């Protein structure tokens, strides 16, 4: 018998992230490495369970020099990228990125470990991240008995909660902010702002930059259709914020918005249009656009020590700490 006789048949090859076999099993090709918490000289971190029923967890980060009697700090709620298919807060590149942000910005951070497609098809990731914000919100009133995590109750200024994410995580931040806008402010904290790094939005109608790179465009099309197999395809409101059924951007649930794009990223045009659309929508907040010239998608994750990555993180830190 040949060696191929023992190989499983591939049902979906979602390059470069994973393969799904006809028996239903999934082999992830990227984003599977993990590292333990508490690996930074200036930042403490630990893993906590948010919902024991679903298994949703998070990695929490706290500056080591913090004192309980000092002023409370902003909270940076982070949703990682990976096309909704791969990665986790424990992935070494993401863990290093959060450590850097916490050290630079002097914030408390919650990096959410939401469940991934295809085992948990969308909208599971959105629901998990919404549950994480509800869990965080339970700590806002320390006397209510709703939250017991001391890193949050002792050190967080809940009037300065920022939703943040890269790529798919930035998409999640967009949707969670709208849920927060519609929720009872006595139950769920209203985010002060959103930091969207190279946001993953898409549609059936390509931009100029997408038309110039048909191979990469085809990959992004496939990622979304695989992660969210709906009849609306790439015009599902989850991926296209202007599609029928999408809420008006004027209702974005925060007062401040930072959109970061990278010049060579195939998603760059989408990020720019999103920023411009929010500004024109009648939304009453303050928005800013940060452009990394000559860089590609989530370059700061893969090359965190480069000058452009340090400039990006510095700008994010300044945004989160600004009270304008």
From TrEMBL:
<dbReference type="InterPro" id="IPR013094">
    <property type="entry name" value="AB_hydrolase_3"/>
</dbReference>
<protein>
    <recommendedName>
        <fullName>Alpha/beta hydrolase fold-3 domain-containing protein</fullName>
    </recommendedName>
</protein>
<dbReference type="InterPro" id="IPR050466">
    <property type="entry name" value="Carboxylest/Gibb_receptor"/>
</dbReference>
<dbReference type="InterPro" id="IPR033140">
    <property type="entry name" value="Lipase_GDXG_put_SER_AS"/>
</dbReference>
<comment type="similarity">
    <text>Belongs to the 'GDXG' lipolytic enzyme family.</text>
</comment>
<feature type="active site">
    <location>
        <position position="167"/>
    </location>
</feature>
<dbReference type="InterPro" id="IPR029058">
    <property type="entry name" value="AB_hydrolase_fold"/>
</dbReference>
<dbReference type="Pfam" id="PF07859">
    <property type="entry name" value="Abhydrolase_3"/>
</dbReference>
<dbReference type="GO" id="GO:0016787">
    <property type="term" value="F:hydrolase activity"/>
</dbReference>
<feature type="domain" description="Alpha/beta hydrolase fold-3">
    <location>
        <begin position="76"/>
        <end position="300"/>
    </location>
</feature>
């Amino acid at each position: 018998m040949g060696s191929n006789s023992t190989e499983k048949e591939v049902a979906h090859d979602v390059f470069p992230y994973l393969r799904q076999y006809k028996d239903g099993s999934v082999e992830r090709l990227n984003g599977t490495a993990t590292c333990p918490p508490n690996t930074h000289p200036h930042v403490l971190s630990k893993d906590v369970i948010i919902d024991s029923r679903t298994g949703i967890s998070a990695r929490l980060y706290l500056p080591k020099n913090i004192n309980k009697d000092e002023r409370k700090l902003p909270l940076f709620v982070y949703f990682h990228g990976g096309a909704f298919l791969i990665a986790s807060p424990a992935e070494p590149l993401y863990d290093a990125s959060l450590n850097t942000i916490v050290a630079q910005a002097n914030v408390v951070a919650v990096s959410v470990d939401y469940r991934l497609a295809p085992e948990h098809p969308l909208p599971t990731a959105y629901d998990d991240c919404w549950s994480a914000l509800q869990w965080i919100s339970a700590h806002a009133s320390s006397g209510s008995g709703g939250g017991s995590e001391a890193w949050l109750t002792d050190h967080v200024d809940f009037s300065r909660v920022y939703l943040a994410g890269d790529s798919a995580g930035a998409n999640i931040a967009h949707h969670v902010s709208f849920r927060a806008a519609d929720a009872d402010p006595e139950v769920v904290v209203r985010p002060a702002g959103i930091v969207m790094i190279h946001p993953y939005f898409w549609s059936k109608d390509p931009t100029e930059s997408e038309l110039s790179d048909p191979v990469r465009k085809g990959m992004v099309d496939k990622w979304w259709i695989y992660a969210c197999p709906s009849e609306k395809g790439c015009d599902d409101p989850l991926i296209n914020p202007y599609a029928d059924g999408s809420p008006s951007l004027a209702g974005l649930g925060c007062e401040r918005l930072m959109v970061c794009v990278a010049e060579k990223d195939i998603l760059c045009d989408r990020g720019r249009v999103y920023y411009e659309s929010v500004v024109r929508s009648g939304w009453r907040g303050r928005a800013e656009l940060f452009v990394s010239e000559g860089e590609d998608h989530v370059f700061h994750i893969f090359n965190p020590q480069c000058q452009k990555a340090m400039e990006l993180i510095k700008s994010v830190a300044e945004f989160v700490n600004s009270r304008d």
